[in-house]
Amino acid sequence: MIEAYANVPKLNDFLHLPVQSGSDRILSAMKRGHTVIEYKQKLRKLRAVRPDICISTDLIIGFPGETDQDFIDTMNLVAEAGFDQSFSFIYSRRPGTPAAALPDEVPHEVKQHRLELLQRRLNGQARAISQRMVGSRQRVLVERPAKRDPMQLAGRTDNNRWVNFDGPPDNPTALINHFADVIITEAMPNSLRGRLSVDVAQ
After folding, report:
1. Sign of the CA dihedral 175, 176, 181, 186?
2. Burial of 64 (0-12, 13-18, 19+ CB in 10 A)
3. CB under 8 Å to 138, separation ≥6 — which residues?
4. Could you tell me where the beta strands, DSSP code E, fall in the chain?
5. How far apart are CA 88 and CA 118, in angstroms?
6. pLDDT tens-digit readout, 126-172
7. 9-12 long-range contacts, Cβ below 8 Å, gap at least 24?
8. Distance (Å, rounded) from C-alpha 156 to C-alpha 168?
9. What is the pTM assigned to this prediction?
10. Residue 200 has pLDDT above 60, yes or no
11. Which is more confident, 122 or 168?
12. Pairing of strands 85-90, 152-156
C-alpha cells in the first residue's frame, strides 16, 4: 500500500488506519497483533511518500483494565500521529468475544470523561489541518448541490474534506461528478468554504 501511495497519483491523500489504543499493554489484551512502534513505523513510511496525507483511525476507550497511564499513552499517540479524525467508542461488553470474560474495571463516568478529552484533542487537530488549507488550491470532486444553498456546490478534497463553493452562475450543476480546482477561503467547524478557480479540471 505504501508503494501504491508513492506511485499512484489517483489515490487520495487520506487513509483510514485503525490502531485501537496507544498502549501496548492494552493492544496485547485486545489481541490486536501490532505494537505502537510498529504502527508509527507504518505512518512514517506513508508520510515519507505522501507528506500531506491525512490519517483517520479507530480507538476504543475504557477497555477492561485501561489505566490512566494507558489512556495518556493513547492521547500521546493521537498527538504524535496527528490524526485527522477517529471513530472513537467507549468499550462495552459484546457476548461471545474473548474480552467479554474480562472484568470491566473502568467506571462508565471515567470512560465518558476520557472520550470527551480524546474528542476535544481530535477536533483541535482537525481544525488545525483545515486552517492550514486556507489559501491553498484543492482538487475537489464535486458531488452535489450544497445543502443550505442550491446555488452552491459541495464536493470533497483529496484529504476527504467537504468544501462548499459557488458554481458557475450560468449552470451551477454542470460541475457535478467532475473535478474542479477550488481556492480554500475559510475553515468552518465541519467543512471548508472556497471559490472556484477553474471551471472543470478534467
Report:
1. positive
2. middle
3. 157, 158, 163, 181, 182, 183, 184, 194
4. 14-16, 54-61, 85-90, 137-145, 152-156, 162-166, 179-187, 192-198
5. 8
6. 999 999 999 999 999 999 999 888 789 999 999 999 999 998 888 87
7. 12/158, 12/159, 12/160
8. 18
9. 0.86
10. no
11. 122
12. unpaired
The answer to whether the Cα torsion of 94, 95, 100, 106 is positive or negative is: positive
Are residues 39 and 46 in contact, defined by beta-carbon separation less than 8 angstroms? no
Could you tell me what percent of the chain has a pLDDT over 70? 96
C-alpha cell read off for 172: 451551477
Q: Tell me which amino acid residue 196 is.
A: L
Q: Which of 69, 92, 80, 94 is CA-nearest to residue 19?
A: 80
Residue 166 to residues 23, 146, 162, 186, Cα–Cα distance (Å):
46, 9, 14, 13
Q: pLDDT tens, 35-76?
A: 999 999 999 999 999 999 999 999 999 999 999 999 999 999
Structural contact between residues 153 and 142, judged by C-beta atoms closer than 8 angstroms: yes
Kindly write down the DSSP assignment for every residue of 59-102, as one continuous string.
EEES-TT--HHHHHHHHHHHHHHT-SEEEEEE----TTSGGGGS
Supply 151's cell numbers: 446555488
Question: Cα angle at 17 between 155 and 160, to 5 degrees?
Answer: 10
Model pLDDT, residue 198: 59
